[in-house]
Amino acid sequence: MFSLGEALENIKRINYLTIQRQVMHHILERQIKKIFKEKFPPSSEQEAFFKAVDDTYGNYDRDHTLLERSFELSSKEFVELNDKVLKLLEELKIEKESVEQKVIERTQELKQKVEELDASNQLLIKREKDLTLANERLRELDKVKTEFISVAAHQLRTPLSAIKWTLSLLIDEDSTNLNTEQRTLILKGYESNERIINLVNEMLVVTRIESGKMEYNFTLIHIEDLIDSVLIDFTSQAHARKIKLILEKLKSPLPYVNVDPEKMRGAIQNLVENTLQYTEDGGGDITISMAIEKDFVKVSFKDSGIGIPAQQQSSIFSKFFRADNAVKFETSGSGLGLFITKNTIEKHGGQIGFESVLGKGSTFYFTLPLANTNTTLPV
Hints:
It contains six helices and seven strands. By secondary structure, the chain is an alpha+beta fold. The chain has three domains: about 5-100; about 135-210, Signal transduction histidine kinase, dimerisation/phosphotransfer (DHp) domain (Helix Hairpins, Orthogonal Bundle); about 220-375, Heat Shock Protein 90 (2-Layer Sandwich), CATH 3.30.565. The protein has a five-stranded mixed β-sheet. The protein has a two-stranded antiparallel sheet with strand order 1-3.
């Protein structure tokens, strides 16, 4: 394939040969005219012949001029095209060098990123190992804590029970003569001792729950009978605070539920006590209602107390949790009641939940499977 330079040289060579032929034709024409005019005076036919020859060469000269002009234009176009191609090649070269440089830079960046990712991955692996070790350590510490609480609670319960027995003897009017001030102090001591005993008992329950050593003894009962029994224990306290406990029973007895009566009694006590603690004196009624929902019985505890802040509701069943607006209330609770209650309800195959509006009260509820649902429960 010819280059542009070779094409231009070929055009020049063709142009040169054309000029040579033209010169030879003119020389031949002059010689023919001279010979014929000297020896043979031209006749009219010869004159016509010579004229035809002149016209032919005239046409030839014109065609040659056009051809030469065409060659000149073609040469110019070739030169311009060659310049453009050279310029394009130069631009392509520059662009290629720029792309190659960018590829090199990008490769270096990617290499650096890979190294950074590798370093990050190594750091994550190390942190994961550290977290695993920390979790194992926390589990060990939690186990030690649980064992310590269990031992401490057992050790505390014996002397606390002795103190309770002693104080109860002092309170008995038949055993000693006490004035009003002395009796009041002993009663306060008795109540404080009772709260500590309840706290110790709840801590023992929590340690059994967390260690998986909580035992259940199931039997068939009517849940409304158990609720009736619990409310009797709180009647005097509610009356003293001008709060009315209302139990709304259904017209017909509820189906049996399969529960551990002692554990379920504790759960119901916690819920009733919780409603009383956060309802101000004379602040309204507390309503306990029951309903059947498919294969479950639902028990609700509605109060008109202080309610729970929306942003803290997700923590309500956590150990030792108290909402910000509940701090002003001086309660005897340990902060473990709802945690224990939630675990108890779930171990019975039910669920616990609540609805609350700040300043307008709360409704806690739980469900239990009816005995005819054949729900599998822990033994």
